[in-house]
Design a protein that fits this description.
- This protein is α+β, with helices and mostly antiparallel strands and 616 residues long.
- It folds into 3 domains: 194 residues, Heat Shock Protein 90, CATH 3.30.565; 120 residues, Ribosomal Protein S5, domain 2, CATH 3.30.230.10; 170 residues, Ribosomal Protein S8, Chain: A, domain 1.
- It has 19 helices and 24 strands.
- An 8-stranded mixed β-sheet has the order 5-4-3-6-2-1-7-8.
- Strand 22 and strand 23 form a beta hairpin.
Length: 616
């Protein structure tokens, strides 16, 4: 039998590796930014076109590469970061696998320009699909500039799986945030389609967070500091009143590397027990420093998952550090058995002697003794009153008889009792046809049996069709606000709101201004309370970020869903009989009453026969 096992060609192996390392344009951004940081760059510029599908370019002022290194960097498993397997447990750099550039070059057009400090000229290499097209001498400044063009040009199936530009740009911004937040000592700039999105100068951790997420973020942060033999914790957590319904602003960094850890995230959530509602999530930017020998980074191609030697100890330290900070800054209630400082004696009264209060008493006073006024002797008022007591009742007897006479002749007016044309009152009273069960479901009778309706999903469907109708005909009714409503968002959230501004205006929102981190609203759709606007926009931003709709998604449809989800009657809310009946009638007036906007069942029916079978 012939041999069937053979070695794969290098270009095929690189394409397979690219499937693990490069999933979308944001993966290219991450790898190139990390390489620039490893090159000890102090200024890094990221340039994007068409959400990275056309161009991803990273320019840095790092050490640069020699002619040989520039050529060798595109070979598989070529790296300057490690020499032996033991080095994997002493990692202080980012890209150590040596697969990134080889994988990127296999699926894109790559142009590299690099120059070292002492060299007079640099090197330029052009690669297309793992094939080196040219390598020439070029005049270029110190550092490295690498351009990745036409991503997935030779794998059209992978290119077709990419989402819309808005979604892919959001992933790129997320990766940019993760790298920039971990390195506040490096200056970053970000350009998208020729316009500047971020310009981040060097600074400390707090300044970097504020520069990315807006000036309003500064008042939301509570510092966390803790140093032990096992772990050093620094960073910030958000105050409970600024918590969000989404998990957007949650960042863990271990040795300046962004990671994802559900276990450590639970430690933060447990530290906020009793301070947050069940549907809210805390904000945190926490930087952990541990011994590199106690972690294993090399367990996932994207290096965002880390295995710790002793996770339980880290969990306990992290939880206690966050709780301590919340209590220290009077965010969380604490038991204080110390004396009240308000009762302390002020300093300027320390040397003053205390005078005992003096109470003057007239010991000769006698209320029953005769008093003298202007030399004439008079008796007490009590004696005068007792002598004339019978004069107080003069004339009362005759008046009392008159009162009794008047009350004996009182007549009360009353309406004539007439028989109702609808019968007795008990017959007129409307029979209750709906019943609310556990403040979640509405039970109603129908001809064949009964109907059980989910009040939250049903109201979502009703609101969804109402909003969709208003936005489709572009005649959403607005109500003017007496004072403009000012809401603060991060720079990336502002970009999403700008993209959806037209659809929001069709729904009835009226914007006066949209700044870098501020949105001013002067008009709202009818029946939307002012205190719900923040929740609506947060839901909308979260849907755009997390649902990751494909390139054919409708912004109008997404907006209608988000508004319906945030304004719908929640489970646990008690409804009056009239509200229950109105909800049932409104649902069956919809075009699609059977399912919610997210295609979940809104009601079920149970026939009398099915009920009879339950009692057999």
């Amino acid at each position: 039998m012939a041999d069937i096992i053979q070695l794969l060609p290098d270009h095929v192996a690189n394409q397979i590796a690219a499937g693990e390392v490069v999933q979308r344009p944001s993966s290219v951004v991450k790898e190139l930014l990390e390489n620039a940081i490893d090159a000890e760059a102090t200024v890094i510029k990221l340039i994007i076109k068409d959400a990275g599908k056309t161009l991803v370019q990273v320019i840095d002022n790092g050490k640069g590469m020699s002619t040989t290194d520039a050529r060798l960097s595109f070979e598989r498993h070529a790296t300057s970061k490690i020499r032996t397997a033991d080095d994997l447990f002493q990692l202080h750099t980012k890209g150590f696998r040596g697969e990134a550039l080889a994988s990127i070059a296999a699926i894109a057009h790559v142009e590299l320009k690099t120059k070292q400090q002492d060299d007079e000229v640099g090197n330029a290499i052009i690669i297309e699909g793992s094939s080196i097209v040219s390598q020439d001498v070029v005049v270029t400044p110190k550092g490295t500039s690498i351009s990745v063009k036409n991503l997935f040009f030779n794998i059209p199936a992978r290119r077709n799986f990419l989402k819309s530009n808005a979604v892919e740009l959001r992933h790129i911004i997320d990766e940019f945030h993760r790298v920039a937040l971990a390195h506040p000592n490096i200056s970053f700039s970000f350009f998208n389609n020729g316009s500047e999105v971020f310009n981040l100068p060097t600074g400390n951790y707090r300044q970097r967070i504020v520069n990315i997420f807006g000036n309003k973020t500064n008042e939301k942060l509570v510092p966390v500091e803790e140093t032990t033999e096992v772990l050093k914790i620094s960073g910030f957590v958000g105050k409970p009143e600024f918590s969000k319904k989404t998990r957007g602003e949650q960042y863990f960094f271990v040795n300046d590397r962004f990671i994802k850890s559900g276990y450590l995230n639970h430690a933060i959530s447990s530290a906020f027990d009793g301070l947050l509602k069940s549907d809210l999530h805390p904000t945190y930017f926490l930087y952990l420093t541990v011994n590199p020998q106690t972690i294993d980074i090399n367990i996932h191609p994207t290096k965002t998952e880390i295995k710790f030697d002793d996770e339980h100890t880290l969990y306990a330290l992290l939880r206690s550090a966050v709780k301590h900070s919340l209590g220290q800054f009077n965010i969380a209630p604490v038991l204080d058995f110390e004396r009240d400082p308000n009762l302390d004696t002020p300093y300027n009264y320390n040397k003053i002697e205390v005078n005992n209060p003096v109470i003057e008493v007239d010991r000769s006073f006698n209320p029953f003794k005769e008093t003298y006024n202007s030399g004439k002797q008079t008796t007490a008022f009590k004696t005068q009153t007792l002598n004339n007591w019978d004069s107080l009742y003069v004339g009362l007897e005759s008046k009392g008889n008159d009162f009794r006479k008047e009350f004996s002749e009182v007549h009360f007016e009353s309406e004539e009792s007439t028989e109702s044309i609808f019968g007795s009152e008990s017959q007129v009273e409307q029979v209750q046809t709906t019943y609310q069960l556990h403040n979640k479901y509405i039970v109603s009778t129908i001809k064949s049996g009964m109907l059980i309706l989910d009040q939250y999903r049903a109201h979502q469907r009703i609101l969804y069709e109402d909003f969709l109708k208003c936005m489709t005909i572009k005649e959403g009714m607005s109500q003017q606000l007496l004072f403009p409503l000012e809401l603060h968002f991060s720079t990336t959230d502002i970009e999403i709101i700008k993209q959806l501004k037209v659809d929001l205006e069709h729904a009835g929102f009226v914007f006066s201004n949209i700044y870098n981190d501020l949105v001013e609203i002067i008009g709202l759709p009818i029946n939307i309370p002012e205190n719900e606007v923040r929740n609506i926009l947060d839901y909308l931003i979260s849907d755009v970020e997390n649902e990751v709709p494909d390139s054919n998604f409708s912004a109008t449809d997404l907006l209608a869903k988000s508004m319906a989800k945030s304004l719908a009657i929640k489970r646990g809310q008690s409804l009056k009989r009239e509200e229950q009946e109105h909800l049932v009638n409104s649902l069956f007036a919809c075009k699609e009453p059977n399912v919610s906007p997210n295609n979940k069942v809104t009601f079920i029916t149970m026939s009398v026969d099915e009920l009879d079978k339950k009692f057999i």
